[in-house]
Design goal:
Blueprint lengths: L27 E2 L6 E2 L17
Antiparallel strand pairs: 1-2
């Protein structure tokens, strides 16, 4: 998983970036239906709503 702050590739499952210490976002919650989606997803896998970066 790449850090959203510095771009470093980190192993799957880690919670913080090994380079800059930023918390790694593991999912994006849809504001419309509440479904979790993988980071970097632009549209909800459940309802198709556009996802916004938080």
């Amino acid at each position: 998983m790449n850090c959203q702050s510095c771009g470093r590739a980190n192993p799957e499952g880690v919670k913080f970036c090994g380079e800059c210490g930023t918390a790694l976002k593991t999912e994006v919650t849809c504001a419309g239906c509440g479904s979790p989606n993988p980071p970097g997803t632009k549209f909800c896998h459940e309802c198709g709503a556009a996802l916004t970066a938080s």
